[in-house]
Specification:
- 2 copies of one chain form a homodimer.
- The first copy, chain A, is built from 12 helices and 18 strands.
- Chain A is of the alpha/beta class.
- The model of chain A has no long low-confidence stretch (mean pLDDT about 95).
- At the A-B interface, strand 15, helix 10 and strand 16 of A face strand 15, helix 10 and strand 16 of B.
């Protein structure tokens, strides 16, 4: 079959790789219906050193179960399934607590050791704990929104949930990428009435407004902080959803959060340390968030998509086939596309 | 009257200063019955550059109201009152939310501009919002425990509360100083059944065990982390109460916290940044805590002291008069005393 491999920064190719097959009795093999490119894929796309063997890419998918191991009980051949962006056994303490990203027998897609989901098919370990069947056809118009549950919308939701967003909390979302816009939608869904979106790409912030943002702040850095403070009577917002992962974004987050408030970060951190000095201590600021246990949120979020109440799949603004994946990376790196959907 | 002033690192003197008097209609003047020396006073004691005018010290006290301004309504002359370690108006949004440390009209004791509480008396601004009357005599045996509510025990409690300590959470307390021991007692009071105390001064950890610690880990650094992990099946504890404020303590905290868990810090940070890199992000660790809004916790904690259920005042292991304050600083800096009570 064919799959996307990254050989170094800027160099993504579609190559023939071995077909996936059942290796463990708990495995499933899934034919990929939809996959996509993640903002986090752009970090290696900008910096990966050369590798002769290439690195398999992709960690978000929706597909059809083609084969299952002898111990798989919860999905069947032919099921349309969401493949969350880590696999997990579903039975360990962490899974039972809803932190599948720390599963004792879990793991993540891609890299040199395992298969990525920007491909025609994939072997899914721990199929019972990982996959979630959805009652839709292979050509459902809901596929993009359902796919968003594998990572991007679940990540925005995780950000809002860990920050404690609710009807009584004001919110600043930092970043108008697909995760930031998902965080806006998630905050709105959780009842937030005041959602300030920091971003300066009008096409994106326009979608943010449709998703529920009440204010858009295009300024960055100190100017951006001043603007958010001005909009909030000088105080900042109770919660800040940091959806970028860069040092200046986390600095802005501490600048716009209200005393006693919470910064949640879901942008994969491209920094090693966080500026939480004595001044932050005096203000009782909490920093939370992390990689989203997407699997945990599926039961809660699925009905809202199946019943049409939210449409997080609107973050996909371009569709490519597998051959178009390298161009898709370029388009996202150039900010020419917000998020690229893949139909293998 | 006499008060303690610090002129530089290691140089604390008792000097004559002007008597406090009512300056604003919202002020009270309080004669100090008990004050004490805080672990945080040791930071300037170790590092303060020379100052000719001296710096007033002390931010924890219990006293008797001697005079009140014309607008003061909730305390009367003769009341025995707790003086929390910031003053606050009690009416702004932050005070109503229980974050008196961010009060819009609040402030803190000591320094060059205002009076400290290691003194014979003090002017208390915002008396209605700040002071809490307690129904005890001036020679009550409860005074040390009541005094602990002005800062040290409230700080331990704040640490446990913000960390989310409860019956279902395991706890590591880092630091066997007075705040660490207070955090042990607070965690026990909140129902924690497993409390691991990291400290290596036996006299102190013995008191920690009496306060509720179930395990004591004397090792530090990587060895200490390994020991806590060994005690917890490899996982670490759900909550970590960081009661030191040094970089190695916060590093240890991230080492012993369980995936998905919370580190709360109440040790005044002597560091500018916190190591919350991609590995911490993958583990979904929360960092919370900050300076304790002691005033907020008084209504909840007072009955437990008045009715004898807890005795946080046991952290005081030495008593001095005002003349003995310089020796008290030395004793705490030399770890010869845990926490020094002052009877002016």
């Amino acid at each position: 079959m064919r799959a996307a491999l990254m050989f170094e920064a800027g160099d993504v190719r579609i190559e023939e790789v071995p077909d996936p097959r059942i290796e463990q009795p708990t495995d499933a093999v899934v034919r990929i219906l939809r996959s996509c490119i993640c903002g986090s894929d752009l970090w290696p796309y900008g910096s990966l050193p050369h590798t002769d063997t290439g690195r398999r890419m992709g960690h978000e998918a929706l597909g059809v179960v083609e084969d299952i191991g002898s111990e798989v009980a919860t999905v069947r051949r032919g099921d349309v399934v969401i493949v969350p962006f880590v696999w997990s056994d579903g039975t360990c303490e962490f899974c039972r607590e809803g932190l599948q990203t720390s599963c004792r027998h879990g793991g993540s897609w891609g890299g040199t050791h395992f298969n990525g989901l920007q491909a025609e098919a994939a072997r899914v370990p721990q199929a019972d704990g990982t996959l979630v069947s959805v009652p839709v056809a292979e050509d459902s118009a809901l596929l993009p929104s359902l796919l968003s549950l594998s990572d991007v919308f679940s990540t925005g939701h995780h950000c809002a949930v860990t920050a404690g967003v609710g009807p009584a909390t004001t919110v600043t979302v930092i970043g108008d990428g697909a995760v930031g816009l998902s965080a806006v939608l998630a905050a709105k869904r959780l009842g937030a009435e005041r959602i300030i979106l920091m971003g300066r790409h009008t096409a994106r912030t326009d979608l943010g407004v449709e998703f529920g943002a009440t204010d858009v702040v295009a300024e960055r850095g100190e100017e951006g902080v001043a603007k958010v403070r001005e909009l909030t009577g000088g105080d900042g917002t109770h919660t800040v959803l940091e959806c970028v992962g860069l040092e200046n974004a986390i600095e802005t987050a501490f600048g716009v959060v209200r005393d006693g408030g919470t910064v949640s970060r879901v942008g994969a951190p491209q920094y090693a340390v966080v500026p939480m000095d004595f001044r932050v201590f005096l203000r009782n600021i909490t920093l939370t968030g992390g990689v989203a246990p997407a699997r945990a949120y599926l039961p809660e979020l699925l009905p809202d998509i199946l019943e049409g109440r939210i449409e997080p799949g609107r973050v996909f603004d371009r569709t490519v086939d597998l051959v178009g994946v390298p161009a898709g990376y370029r388009a996202m790196a150039d900010r020419d596309a917000l998020k690229v959907l893949i139909r293998p």
